[in-house]
Task: structure prediction
Amino acid sequence: MPGRAASLLYANRLPIYCWEVDWGQSGARMCGVRADDRGFTLVETMVVVAILGVLVLIAFASYGVSVGQAQRVACLHNQRVIQDAVIQYEIANNSMYPPVLNDLAPYVRRLPELDKCTSPPFNPLVYDPDTGTVSCSTPGHQQ
Result:
């Protein structure tokens, strides 16, 4: 189409070229971007998407490790809280360990929440009434 460059505008720092076009009796003004100013190529966009994908994979891997460590630390904390309650029971009852964990209810405020492992499959903590020890059956969660 025949036309002439009329002006140069800037929108968001990108050059937009406008020109007048004569279509019969009414003139029109058209704006656009030159062929050499069109933006990113397909290869550049694919490289950016690939880099973002790698960063997301790294983030998800780190998140999974962090969640596993947090669950392990929470399970160890629960074991220590219950072990402290066993010691308090032992002191209050003439060196006798409680026969079952439910006897520790006066010493532990949230016993039903604390007597399970915090990692799937959420197994109950193992209590030995002969030695007064509390442990977890999940590998890596032993004191």
User: Anything to note?
Assistant: The CA atoms of residues 91 and 97 lie 9 Å apart. Helices lie at 42-92, 111-114. Strands lie at 3-11, 14-23, 26-32, 126-128, 133-135. The chain has two domains: 3-37, 67-143.
